[in-house]
Amino acid sequence: MKPAPFEYVRADTVPEALAALGGADDARVLAGGQSLVPIMALRLATPEVLVDVSRAPELREHRSDGGVLTVGAGVTDRELELDAGVRAAHPLLVRTLSLIAHPEIRARGTLCGSLAHADPAAELPALLLATDGEVEVAGDAGRRRVPAAEFVTGPFTTALADGEMVVAAHLPLPGPGSGWAVDEIARRPGDYALAGVVCGVELDGAGRCAGARVALFGVAATPVRAHGAERVLDGAVPDDAALDAAAAAAFDGVDVIGDEVHASAGYRRRAGAALVRRALTAAVRAAGEGA
């Protein structure tokens, strides 16, 4: 199957892109196209206008400043993955990027594109949620920042209003005394995750957990924070008993999805709990080594 006919617009600036988006009833932004183009080929999406922002200079920049990594909407995953400065400043991001599909896909796909696509099985929305990041959005009314917890509103659905576009993502850098880990289960390397977790642990001077963040992906309609696990760890010594209890509580209040083709809800719950246990162990170890 081939895409339905559409008009192609190359936007060299954000104002040009917004003008093109506002001039059509159904327009989509194209950055890497690794999610959009396949669904257009299947005619699951039939936009009238495709607005290409991949070469807009202001969207091709990324920088670390004030403890935050800012990534423009045109920056590819592979650029970030291979950047020595990004690797030193945000190793969790680089590790997460390595789990996404294959290098050929990451050479075109973008971090911001993944956030805007809002696939429940995607790694990057969960990373942003776990680290309390923000999405910068531009529209006719100007720019605004949307916290990660408010950006993804449902499967493949975001808080973007008509005529708005994602222009950047803001990812807080891991702080001193913290340890982070990401883990997932997929049928084959590069496949979408059947269950996944991004977690971080911060230890105080006494070796107790001063803060924990656990985000699940691939198990619900959106990435979700595992507040049950976080509450168990808060103020606790992260020994085996505490980590076991946190993993057991990770899915408290989570509406787990399941199907007969990929994985049942029961499997996702059991596998997800095991992933949380394994990832928390790695995060605690990393926090201890960095203390």
Report on the architecture of this protein:
There is one protein chain. The chain is an alpha+beta fold. It has three domains: 7-52, Uridine Diphospho-n-acetylenolpyruvylglucosamine Reductase, domain 2 (2-Layer Sandwich), CATH 3.30.43.10; 62-172, Uridine Diphospho-n-acetylenolpyruvylglucosamine Reductase, domain 3; 178-290, Enolase-like, domain 1. 35% of the residues lie in helices and 25% in strands. The protein has twelve helices and 14 strands. The protein has helices at residues 14-22, 36-41, 77-82, 84-89, 91-98, 103-106, 111-117, 123-130, 148-151, 227-233, 240-249, 265-290; strands at residues 7-10, 27-30, 49-52, 62-65, 68-72, 134-139, 142-147, 152-154, 157-158, 165-172, 178-185, 195-203, 209-217, 224-225. The longest helix has 26 residues, at 265-290. The chain starts with 6 loop residues before the first strand and ends with a helix.
